[in-house]
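Memo to structure team: turn this sequence into structure tokens by end of day. - J.P.
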Amino acid sequence: MSKPHFRKKETHEKYQNLIKNGYINDGCRLCKMDGLTSFKYWNITENDFPYDAIAKTHHMLCIKRHVDENQITNEEWRELKTIKNSKDLERYTFIFETLPHRKSIPNHFHLHLIEALDVI
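Reply from structure team:
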């Protein structure tokens, strides 16, 4: 049984080729990204390899520090909850986290912000 791909074929192939060539081993990509919207502890950033087969828009909500979910402070979790309940995320249809065994960047906690494609 084949795995579902949330990226269009071209985007998925580009992503896989870069990973094979060490793209994610060249320092943390999430640490290097500028925020579209910035909060005290979190940034909303572009996703260089969006789930363009299912999403009109695919951003990421990334903690500014290079930490996994076990290292996030209570204050950082509180701000995340505030952001999730704010107008800053109104445009998105879904917010989700990839399971640990599927994360390409497991050591920098982030969530995916998806504005779904219109479905008739």
